[in-house]
Amino acid sequence: MTVESDKRITFPFKGLWEGMWLTLKTMVKPAPVTMYPQVQEIPVPRARGVISLDTEACTVCMLCARECPDWCIYIEGHKEEKPPSKPGGRPRQRNTLDRFDIDYSLCMYCG
Q1: What is the structure's pLDDT at 78?
Q2: Is residue 109 part of a domain?
Q3: Is residue 107 part of a domain?
Q4: Domain coverage including residue 38
Q5: Residue 55: CB partners within 8 Å, gap ≥ 6?
Q6: Residue 99 phi, psi dihedral angles, 5° rounding
Q7: CA within 20 to 30 Å of 91's CA: 11, 29, 40, 62, which one?
Q8: Rounded-to-integer distance, Cα 99 and Cα 60, Å
């Protein structure tokens, strides 16, 4: 008989006992989850999940709508004529945002 076969004879259910011990240790510890409706978790600072738009800074260039992989951003805008800043100047056209919507059922929060 080799040494390994002797160990198997002396500890025939070693794996079973290790598994049972691990189960008992885990049963005693508190659960690592939070009860969501009653206690809300604070998200980490760099978490993705909030998509916002500064409507004053938007130029209605449609880049965000074109780059969105899920096509869940909808933008509508129109052009307004802005009076000339100096007398004798020509009027300028400026894009103005009418609608900015995100379909969150399609969004994958890619950032």
Answers
A1: 94
A2: no
A3: no
A4: 3-102
A5: 97, 100
A6: -145, 135
A7: 62
A8: 10
> Which residue has tokens 């049963």?
27
Half-sphere exposure of 7 (CA within 13 A, CB side): 5
What HEC string does the chain produce? CCHHHHHHHHCCCHHHHHHHHHHHHHHHCCCCCCCCCCCCCCCCCCCCCCCCCCCCCCCCCCHHHHHCCCCCEEEEEEEEEECCCCCCCCCEEEEEEEEEEECCCCCCCCC
How far apart are the C-alpha atoms of 48 and 106, rounded to whole Å?
15
In a domain, 108, yes or no: no
pLDDT band at 2 (very low <50, low <70, confident <90, very high): low
